[in-house]
Amino acid sequence: MKYVSIRELNKTYRAKGCADVPALKGVSFTLPEKGMVFILGKSGCGKSTLLNVLGGLDNFDGGDVIIDGRSMKDFSAKDTDRHRNEKVGFVFQENNLLDEYTVWRNVGFAVELQSVKGGGDQVAAALKSVDLEGFADRKCNRLSGGQKQRVAIARAIVKKPEILLCDEPTGALDSDTGEEIFNLLKNISNDTLVIVVSHDRESAEKYGDRVIELKDGQVISDSAPIEVAPVESKPEVQKKSCGLPAKRAFSIGASFLIERPVRLALCIIICLLTFT
């Protein structure tokens, strides 16, 4: 059985000349391989920090995170990159789409980052799963807020992650559209572990299989705690390297500038001034 076990997790933010800010203080719980789990709490309670640690976007100071029997403390830099790229999908409040690109290209980037050739079938399947089959050639700047969030979800699930991390995925949407997104995430949770950070207790109780509440960096309630027997950390099976080739990355950056002529002109002027 695959699972995520968080054990006495601690994280403190430190800045020179400022007081230390503890974000997580001894957080512990275990999650199963699938289902929809809500993490609730007020702003500053450590919800987003916890999500960033699970996704490999931030490190931690103490404790441990065990994913499918492997400790994140044993991850090398390449292991962390592989974890983010292959095992985890991210959905944020701000969808972070490339608005000048089509829906297909936005979702397809996630496949390219895995160095997968001919990923068209994966993209088509992801768009179908979020009910956007007829929108592949539409630019994202012509979509509604709910449609953009569906594209962001398709981009996150196209690589078939084991864990889908959602940080306030409906925060910028109206209530009806928010319900549509939660229903979509609920369907995805039938096969994937979906972790949702939210302030919305009503939606958490309606859609969540489990609700965990944080306060001041600590767990204060857990609707369905799970106990998993401890296991020894096991090595990661080495896989092929991932990421965009330099030539492809340069091509994407160049095309992005070309499609935004004002930005391109400003970049050229700044470069000329710099060289001068």
Largest sheet: 6 strands, mixed
The arrangement of helices and strands along the chain is EEEHEEHEHHHEHEHEEHH
Query: What are the low-pLDDT stretches, counting only 5+ consecutive residues below 50?
Result: none
| Proportion of residues in extended strands | 15-25%
Mean pLDDT: 86
- The number of helical elements comes to 9
- Name the helicity range: 25-40%
Radius of gyration: 20 Å
Structural class, by secondary structure, is: alpha/beta
Query: How many angstroms separate the termini?
Result: 61 Å
Largest beta sheet: strand ordering: 6-7-8-3-9-10
Beta strand count: 10
* General shape: globular
Structure description:
- With about 280 residues, this protein is an alpha/beta fold.
- The chain is globular.
- A hairpin with a 7-residue loop joins strand 1 (about 5-15) and strand 2 (about 20-30).
- The chain has 9 helices and 10 strands.
- It is about 35% helix and about 20% strand.
